[in-house]
Amino acid sequence: xxxxxDISSLPNMVSALRILLAPLLFLLALLQLPWWFLGVxxxxxxxxxxxxxxxxxxxxxxxxxxxxxxWGDFTNYFTMAVCAWILWPEVTREVLxxxxxxxxxxxxPAWAGLVKFGRFxxxxxxxxxxxxxxxxxxxxxxxxxxxxxxxxxxxxxxAIAGIEEILITLLLRRERTDVRxxxxxxxxxxxxx
Length: 193
Prior knowledge:
The protein is mainly alpha-helical. The chain folds into 2 domains: 1-87, no CATH class; 89-193, no CATH class. It is 80% helix and 0% strand. It is built from 9 helices and no strands. Helix 6 (96-117) packs parallel to helix 8 (149-171). The radius of gyration is 17 Å and the shape is globular.
């Protein structure tokens, strides 16, 4: 696949949309429009699910697409974290331990990838997929006032997923995308002699 087609493929455009929604989310938070914020955030979450489905179904997976998806995830989580403080500071203080667990679960693996490989990694592990799904739902439940307990679960699942991503970075001898688990990274490390 050539670079021009890779950049303009439908799954990559969907991932890019998630990144482009971040300024709108910040604006909605600054304007104190929480329900609009949550609505646009749900749209952003749908793009996260849709880009991977499209990439696999249309057979348009690529290292660029994996990285773009990871950048979108990082942008989305960063936006969610900052906007939570802007819109719901009291609630966020009440769940600060779990909030911190979620925040560091994406910051530390990103930092580890930057230090070792000079770029964000795009492993797309099963643990991260589960943690992202639970965290997204927990965020919506917490900040819409439905329930708080899912946020604690999201904190623990995110921490486990983040630790696994750091372990994968430590195990791999060279940068790779779509490494589904630490076990796969271990096998790849042993085959890279």
